[in-house]
Design brief:
The structure holds two protein chains of two kinds.
Chain A (H helix, E strand, L loop, with lengths): L7 E14 L2 E14 L3 E5 L6 H8 L7 E6 L2 E4 L7 H11 E5 L10 H6 L13 H8 L15 H13 L5 E5 L7 H18 L2 E5 L3 H6 L2 E6 L2 E4 L1
Parallel strand pairs in A: 3-8, 3-9, 6-7, 7-8
Antiparallel strand pairs in A: 1-2, 1-4, 4-5, 9-10
Helix pairs in contact in A: 5-6
Chain B lengths: L3 H9 L3 H37 L5 E5 L3 H10 L11 H6 L4 E14 L7 E8 L4 H4 L5 E4 L9 E4 L1 H7 L6 E4 L4 E9 L10 E4 H8 L6 E6 L5 H8 L5 E5 H44 L1 H9 L4 H29 L1 H11 L13 H27 L3 H6 L2
Parallel strand pairs in B: 3-8, 5-7
Antiparallel strand pairs in B: 1-9, 1-10, 2-3, 2-9, 4-7, 5-8, 6-7
The chains are: A alpha/beta, B alpha+beta.
Chain lengths: ~230, ~400
C-alpha cells in the first residue's frame, strides 16, 4: 500500500505554482501545506481561479510546482527544486493515480468495454485481469458494454470514465469537477458511486467541485481562496 | 482487452472521408510507381526479347538511315532501298559468319485492313535459310513452303487471327491481286513476327517485280568478333550495317527521356501522397490533443503515443500501397496499351512487367516513405503534455 506508517498518502509542504502570461506572473497556488491519509475522501471547493484545480494537478503529478515539496507515501516526489520529466511523472501516475474529468474524454470509436480497457493497452498492473467486466458490473453498466459512447447518457459516460480510471487499481482517485456536465439527478448518482468506492473499497478520493451537495459527501472539505487552502 | 493496433485502426475510422481520400492518394501513387518500375523492367526485357528473336545480330541493307531501317525492319515498313542478292555469297563464307538469310520486305496498302485501310507487311524469305534463324518458331497449323517459288504463305499468329485464316485458305496480296495459299500458321511468339505474313522470297520478288532484296540477316558464330565483321562488311559497296546492340542502345536512349519524365511524375505523385499523409495524421493528432493527454494520464509513455500514431501511418500506407499495387496488377494491360500509344517504338510482349518481387519492393518504398512522413506528427503527439492538452491550451 502506498502509505507511510502513520497512513499518510500525500503530504504537501509550501506548494506554490506561478504561471507566466507574457510579462505578467499569476500566483495560482501560494504555499499550500496539507496531508491526505489513505482512505480519505477530500473535497476541494472554492470560486473559479482560487487554485483548487492547480493544487489537485500538483497532487496528481500532472504538473511540477514552482516551489515546495510533495511526498507520496513518504517518497519525495517534488522538493529542493527537483523537476520531474514527463516520463517519470507518467511512471508515478500510472502506478498511483486514476483520473476523472468533467468532460469524460471517452474515445468515440471505441465501445464502453474498450474504453475501460484502454489504460491496459499501455500499462497492465499484475492481477487486474477481469477488472473491466467487474467494474462495469459494479457500476451498473454491464448492459452497455458493447455500446459506443454516443449511445449512452452523460451519467453513464462518467461511470465509464470512473471504471476506466479504476481499471489499473489506483491508490488515489483524482476527480476534477466530475459532475460539472451532469444534471442534479445524475450528479447525485455519481456522488453515490464515489462515496461507495471510498467506503467499501477504501479508495482515497481527491475531488474538486463547485457542487456543495457533492462536497458534503466527502469526509473532509478544504476551501480554496486566492491560492491558499483553508480547512474547517 | 484492446490492442494498440485496434486503437490506431479505430482512430482512423473517426474521419472516414479524410482517411479514404488519403488512402486514394497513396493508392494512386503506388499504382503509378509500380507501373513505372514494371515498365522500366518490362520494356528492356521486351526489347531484348524482340531483338534476340530476330535470330540474327547484324543486318546488311542499302545505305540510308540505319535506325529508321531497323525500326521498319522491326515493325514492317515500306520505302526501303534495295541491294543485290548476290551480296549474300560475298558474306556467307566469312569466318565470323554462322548463317545468313536474304529478306525482301514489301508493304502493300490493304483497304480492308482496320478503319480506312492499313499497311500489310510481307516478308519474302527462303525456306532453306530463314527457319534456321528462328528456331523458336512453332507451327500451330501446317509448316513452311513446299518450294521457293510456290504461291504459298505462312502467317504469323495475329495476322492469321486478324484475317481469320486457316491452313488451306487463300489470301489475296493487296494491290497486286495475286492469290496465295496459306500453308502454315505460327504459334504466338510475342514479337513483331506475329503480325507478319511470310512468303517465299522468289515468289515475293516475282509479285513485286523486284529481283533484289532489302536486307541480309547475319547470324554471327559464337565467340566471333562481331565488331571486326561489322568493319569488314562496311567494305561492301553502298551498304549499311546495323548491329542490333546499337539499335537497342539507341532505342533505350530515346525511351530513357520518357522514363525520366514519368519517373519524375511518379516521385511527385509519391511526395504529394506523403504530404497528404502528414496532413491527415497531423490534423488527427491536433484534433485529439485532449485525448492524447488523457492517454498520458492513464500511463501512456511518450514512446507509446509515438508508436500509436506511427501505427496509424503504417496502416494508411500499407492499405493504400496494397490497393494501388492490386490496381496495377488488374489494369496492367490498360497501362500497356497507354504506354504503347505514347512510345516511338514499342516491342512486342509484355511492356509493363509487374511481379511479386517488384510489388513487394514498391510496397516497401511506400511504407518506408510513409513512416518517414509520419515521424513529425508522431513526435508531436508524443510530446503532448497532459495538463496543457486537457486544459485545451
Amino acid at each position: 500500500m502506498m502509505t507511510t506508517e502513520n497512513g499518510v498518502s500525500l503530504a504537501a509542504r509550501g506548494l506554490t505554482r506561478v504561471y507566466r502570461r507574457g510579462i505578467e506572473e499569476i500566483q495560482a497556488l501560494d504555499g499550500v501545506t496539507l496531508q491526505i491519509r489513505r482512505g480519505e475522501f477530500v473535497a476541494f471547493m472554492g470560486p473559479s481561479g482560487s487554485g483548487k484545480t492547480t493544487l489537485v494537478n500538483l497532487l496528481g503529478c500532472l504538473d511540477n510546482p514552482s516551489s515546495g515539496e510533495l511526498d507520496l507515501a513518504g517518497r519525495s516526489i517534488f522538493g529542493n527544486g527537483k523537476i520531474l520529466g514527463e516520463r517519470e511523472l507518467t511512471r508515478i501516475r500510472r502506478e498511483v493515480f486514476g483520473y476523472i474529468f468533467q468532460n469524460f474524454y471517452l474515445i468515440p470509436t471505441l465501445t464502453v468495454r474498450e474504453n475501460v480497457a484502454l489504460p491496459l493497452a499501455f500499462y497492465h498492473k499484475p492481477g487486474v485481469e477481469g477488472e473491466v467486466e467487474r467494474l462495469l458490473g459494479m457500476l451498473g453498466m454491464e448492459h452497455r458494454m458493447d455500446h459506443l459512447p454516443g449511445q449512452i447518457s452523460g451519467g453513464e459516460m462518467q461511470r465509464v470514465a470512473i471504471a476506466r480510471a479504476l481499471v489499473n487499481r489506483p491508490e488515489i482517485l483524482l476527480a476534477d469537477e466530475p459532475t460539472g456536465n451532469l444534471d442534479t439527478k445524475r450528479s447525485g448518482e455519481i456522488g453515490e458511486v464515489l462515496q461507495e468506492l471510498n467506503k467499501s473499497a477504501g479508495l482515497t478520493i481527491v475531488m474538486v467541485t463547485h457542487n456543495p451537495g457533492l462536497a458534503k459527501l466527502g469526509g473532509r472539505l478544504i476551501e480554496m481562496r486566492d491560492g491558499q487552502a483553508y480547512e474547517n | 482487452m484492446i490492442s494498440r493496433f485496434q486503437i490506431a485502426y479505430k482512430n482512423l475510422l473517426r474521419k472516414k472521408a479524410r482517411t479514404l481520400l488519403t488512402l486514394v492518394g497513396i493508392m494512386l501513387s503506388a499504382w503509378v510507381l509500380v507501373s513505372l518500375l514494371g515498365f522500366n523492367r518490362g520494356y528492356e526485357s521486351a526489347l531484348n526479347r524482340d531483338i534476340d528473336n530476330m535470330g540474327y545480330q547484324l543486318m546488311v541493307m542499302a545505305k540510308g538511315c540505319p535506325y529508321e531501317a531497323a525500326t521498319m525492319m522491326l515493325q514492317g515498313g515500306t520505302g526501303l532501298r534495295y541491294i543485290e542478292q548476290s551480296m549474300v555469297d560475298s558474306i556467307v563464307n566469312r569466318p565470323e559468319v554462322d548463317k545468313v538469310t536474304p529478306i525482301l520486305m514489301q508493304a502493300f496498302f490493304d483497304p480492308d485492313k482496320g478503319d480506312g485501310g492499313g499497311i500489310a507487311g510481307y516478308f519474302g524469305v527462303e525456306a532453306a535459310t530463314f527457319p534456321a534463324m528462328k528456331p523458336f518458331f512453332r507451327f500451330r497449323q501446317g509448316g513452311w513452303f513446299h518450294d521457293e517459288q510456290a504461291l504459298e504463305a505462312v502467317m504469323g499468329f495475329e495476322a492469321a487471327e486478324l484475317e481469320q485464316r486457316e491452313v488451306g485458305d487463300p489470301i489475296l496480296v493487296p494491290e497486286k491481286n495475286v492469290q496465295l495459299k496459306v500453308v502454315g500458321i505460327l504459334e504466338r511468339t510475342g514479337t513483331q513476327d506475329d503480325g507478319t505474313i511470310f512468303v517465299p522470297l522468289k515468289t515475293l520478288q516475282k509479285i513485286s517485280a523486284i529481283d533484289k532484296i532489302t536486307t541480309i540477316g547475319i547470324k554471327v558464330k559464337k565467340d566471333a568478333d562481331t565488331t571486326k565483321l561489322e568493319t569488314s562488311l562496311y567494305q561492301l559497296p553502298d551498304v549499311q550495317v546495323v548491329s542490333f546492340t546499337q539499335v537497342k542502345q539507341t532505342i533505350m536512349k530515346l525511351v530513357a527521356t520518357a522514363r525520366v519524365m514519368v519517373l519524375s511524375i511518379a516521385i511527385i505523385a509519391l511526395l504529394i501522397a506523403m504530404v497528404g499523409v502528414v496532413n491527415t495524421i497531423l490534423m488527427s493528432v491536433l484534433e485529439r490533443l485532449q485525448e492524447i493527454g488523457i492517454l498520458k494520464t492513464m500511463g501512456a509513455m511518450p514512446s507509446d503515443i509515438f508508436f500509436l500514431v506511427w501505427t496509424e501511418t503504417l496502416i494508411l500506407c500499407s492499405c493504400g500501397g496494397v490497393a494501388g499495387i492490386g490496381l496495377a496488377f488488374v489494369f496492367a494491360r490498360l497501362s500497356d496499351i497507354l504506354v504503347r500509344r505514347v512510345l516511338p517504338y514499342a516491342p512486342g510482349g509484355e511492356l509493363v512487367a509487374i511481379d511479386l518481387k517488384l510489388a513487394l519492393l514498391t510496397l516497401a518504398v511506400i511504407v518506408v516513405v510513409g513512416l518517414l512522413s509520419g515521424i513529425y506528427p508522431a513526435w508531436k503527439a508524443g510530446r503532448v503534455r497532459p495538463l496543457e492538452s486537457i486544459r485545451g491550451e
